[in-house]
Specification:
The complex is a heterodimer.
Chain A (H helix, E strand, L loop, with lengths): L6 E5 L5 E5 L14 E3 L4 H6 L2 E7 L2 E9 H14 L8 E4 L4 E6 L6 E2 L4 E7 L2 E6 L4 E6 L6 E2 L4 E5 L1
Antiparallel strand pairs in A: 1-2, 1-5, 3-4, 4-5, 6-13, 7-9, 7-12, 8-11, 9-10, 11-13
Chain B lengths: L13 E4 L3 H13 L3 E7 L6 H5 L2 E6 L10 H11 L3 E3 L9 H9 L3 E2 L4 H8 L1 H10 L20 H11 L3 E9 L2 E6 L5 H16 L4 E5 L5 E9 L5 E13 L2 E7 L6 H17 L4 E9 L5 E7 L6 H8 L3 H9 L6 H8 L7 E8 L1 E2 L5 E2 L2 E2 L2 E3 L6 E5 L6 E2 L6 E9 L2 H14 L1 E3 L5 H7 L3 H4 L7 H5 L2 H19 L32 H12 L4
Parallel strand pairs in B: 1-2, 1-4, 2-3, 4-5
Antiparallel strand pairs in B: 6-7, 6-8, 9-10, 9-12, 10-11, 11-14, 12-13, 14-21, 15-16, 17-20, 18-22, 19-21
Helix pairs in contact in B: 4-5
The chains are: A mainly beta, B alpha+beta.
């Protein structure tokens, strides 16, 4: 990406942090700055001018995606036109930990409340309960009892 | 008495360590210092691990799942026989407290470094430990004395009535349990059936025994435990206590010795209670008696862990004693050392303070969910008063098959404030990458006023830990740091160059794989997770 344009930075986490920063406007690096590591870009990232970085700040291991802000805005407009559903649409629940699905408390078509227990993933011998982030109706369930899931795998959809 | 003189000889010629990670290394170190040859055992993913490299000999015992490797008593005994080991050290977890394992080891003519199989049998069942403590007049937390009838759905009413009698909040605990597994807190009677079922299921998975019982939850209590050492059929001494109140999901995160704020009389009292409990079960070698310390100043016996504890190091640092050395000599039939007896005599008057911070592969912003992955950066702290008991290194892949504990950062100083300052300094030196660890939690805890004031309680984390603002502040800084690195001062040429196209299938792949095949999906996943230089 060009060095002087404003960047859109997405720090992933339980809730993503999205900020736009102009590198030219930033103060110089502090003396004790953590090391930034760049991931090898995927072909798609290369095509879209995005790069992924990792940096550890105060013990938090943070993955930061960077792309030119102008290009991000353009891409957003395009996808907004294509997507039929608005903000009240689907919520796709993804695995926040790698592990194995051991419990499934809901079925497709079931109406759930926010905070309701949906499924459990066993990782490192502990059962971790996944609860509904909001109210809705259970759509597709991709999680299968006994099957392993990786970080970011789709578990189920709340319509 | 076997073995030879302490000053000139060694307790054993060769010892097998039936464990992995940091505790295997801890035991290997003690053996080396005593001139004992070591035999490591390992599962496939651990073949290149530090504990295997540090040992004199190593034996493969199976594939990744613990049930097919580190929990295979038969293979471990076989390995000990094949390598001519005279003793087996079980570490903690895995088979360490299984009477059947200790029995099998001893039946093979090999010394088991730990309490006798008989003691393990009576202590492994927490309920029987509760019963015998109660019979001795040692105070225990109100609760049940028999396992709950969990396999009979029709008897749930009985469980509910029993719960009412004891009073909420309650803890459902596995009688074979340890490490917080098979334990659930219940505040609302409506949650009891699910909690009982989950705890029983976890207990079956973790310990092969689904027996659970109920115990009243003592609000705001502290977890205080006493380190014990015992001679074969002889004296039992207490080497001081530890406070392990800082827990999440009933698993300890931070331990310290001594327990701050206790009077000399309170220290003596809990040491005496611990020795009393240990005597009833005929304890030999090392064990720990755990107590709940209520806000009104009462001690309630919880359980005895008949093994070396994860947090034994803080006692070592305060008592100036090597507990694994002691274990090895005791297992060889020697009496308690003069050094151990002196440490026991001084146990109520500690002159140092030590902390242990558990550095685990867990995300403190996601309820401490375990986070396996590739450790791309790992630089350990050092310097005065710092001890790092670690089982990992840079480039190590943290497996989802085992406990997420990576390392224990221990510090010792003249008093508690100095030890806190030292711990913070050491945390600053500890550099990590690739895998989220508990470090941010420790940084927060060590600056928390309640912790600095030693106002400790087991529910502290549940009440006070709010990671979102801390993580967000770090995320904002991360965005700036990255913008700067990708900005005007960092031309793209300074960033690592793209590697050659990723080979699908990864290492060992015979060639290209067809898109759409399961291998292809796997290759994509590998590419997604192993793209960090």
């Amino acid at each position: 990406m060009s060095a002087r344009e404003p960047l859109r930075l997405t720090v992933s986490g339980p809730e993503d942090l999205v900020v736009e920063l102009d590198p030219a406007a930033l103060a110089g690096a502090a003396h004790r700055e953590p090391e930034v590591r760049a991931a090898h870009p995927t072909p798609r990232e290369r095509a879209e001018g995005r790069r992924r970085y990792e940096v550890t700040v105060d013990g938090w291991v943070l993955v930061v995606d960077a792309e030119p802000a102008a290009r991000a805005a353009l891409r957003e407009r395009a996808s907004r036109g294509a997507a039929a559903s608005g903000p009240t649409g689907r919520a796709v629940l993804k695995a926040q930990i790698p592990g194995r699905v051991v419990r499934l408390w809901v079925e497709a078509g079931e109406v759930v409340e926010a905070g309701q227990r949906l499924l459990a993933i066993e990782a490192m011998k502990m059962e971790n309960e996944i609860r509904a982030p909001r109210a809705g109706t259970i759509g597709t369930i991709s999680a299968v009892i006994g099957r392993p899931v990786e970080l970011g795998d789709e578990l189920l959809v709340i319509e | 008495m076997s073995g030879s003189d302490r000053r000139t000889g060694r307790p054993f010629e060769r010892v097998l360590i039936a464990n992995r990670g940091e505790i295997a290394i801890r035991v290997i170190r003690a053996c080396r210092e005593l001139g004992i040859e070591t035999v490591a055992v390992y599962s496939d993913p651990d073949a290149a691990s530090r504990h295997v490299r540090l040992a004199d000999h190593a034996v493969r015992i199976g594939p990744a799942p613990a049930t097919e490797s580190y929990l295979r008593a038969d293979r471990i005994v076989e390995a000990a026989l094949a390598t001519g080991a005279q003793a087996v050290h079980p570490g903690y977890g895995f088979l360490s407290e299984q009477a059947a394992f200790a029995t099998a080891v001893e039946a093979a003519g090999i010394a088991f470094i730990g309490p006798s199989p008989l003691t393990l049998g009576s202590l492994g069942d927490k309920l029987s430990a509760r019963r015998s403590a109660n019979a001795q007049g040692v105070p225990i937390v109100p609760g049940t004395f028999e396992p709950l009838p969990t396999d009979d759905a029709g008897r749930m009413d009985e469980i509910v009535r029993e719960a009412e009698r004891i009073g909420y909040p309650l803890l459902v605990k596995a009688s074979a349990g340890g490490g917080g597994r098979g334990m659930r807190r219940v505040d609302d009677p409506a949650d009891l059936p699910v909690a009982v079922a989950t705890a029983a299921r976890e207990a079956v998975q973790a310990f092969g025994d689904g027996s659970v019982y109920l115990e009243h939850y003592v609000e705001g209590g502290r977890h205080i435990e006493v380190q014990l050492l015992g001679e074969e059929g002889g004296r039992i001494v207490a080497l001081g206590e530890r406070d392990c109140s800082t827990q999440r999901r009933h698993q300890k995160l931070v331990e310290e010795a001594p327990a701050p704020g206790l009077t000399r009389d309170q220290r003596r009292r809990v040491h005496e209670l611990a020795v009393q409990v240990a005597r009833t079960v005929g304890l030999r070698n090392a064990a720990t008696a755990e107590f709940l310390f209520s806000r009104s100043g009462e001690f309630y016996f919880l359980e005895v862990n008949a093994r070396l504890q994860v947090e034994h190091g803080v006692t070592e640092l305060v008592a100036d004693l090597d507990l694994v050395h002691e274990q090895l000599w005791l297992a060889a039939g020697h009496p308690l050392s003069d050094r151990a007896l002196a440490a026991a005599a001084a146990a109520a008057d500690p002159v140092r303070h030590a902390f242990e911070l558990r550095i685990s592969a867990e995300d403190p912003s996601r309820s401490f969910a375990p986070m396996p992955g590739l450790l791309t950066r790992w630089r350990e702290p050092s310097g005065p008063g710092v001890r790092m008991d670690s089982g990992v290194e840079e480039g190590w892949r943290v497996s989802g098959d085992y406990d997420p504990l990576l390392a224990k950062l221990l510090v010792v100083a003249a008093d508690r404030p100095a030890a806190i300052a030292r711990a913070l300094r050491a945390l600053d030196e500890l550099e990590t990458g690739g895998v989220q660890t508990t470090i941010p939690f420790h940084r927060w805890l060590l600056t928390l006023p309640a912790f600095i004031d030693a106002d400790l309680r087991t529910d502290l984390i549940d009440r006070a830990w709010d990671p979102a603002p801390l993580r967000e502040a770090a995320a904002r800084r991360a965005a700036e740091i990255v913008a700067r690195a990708a900005g005007p001062d960092a031309a793209p040429a300074q960033l690592p160059a793209a590697p050659p196209a990723t080979r699908p299938g990864g290492e060992g792949s015979a060639g290209w794989v067809r898109p759409g095949s399961p291998d292809w999906a796997h290759a994509g996943r590998r590419e997604a997770t192993e793209r960090w230089p």
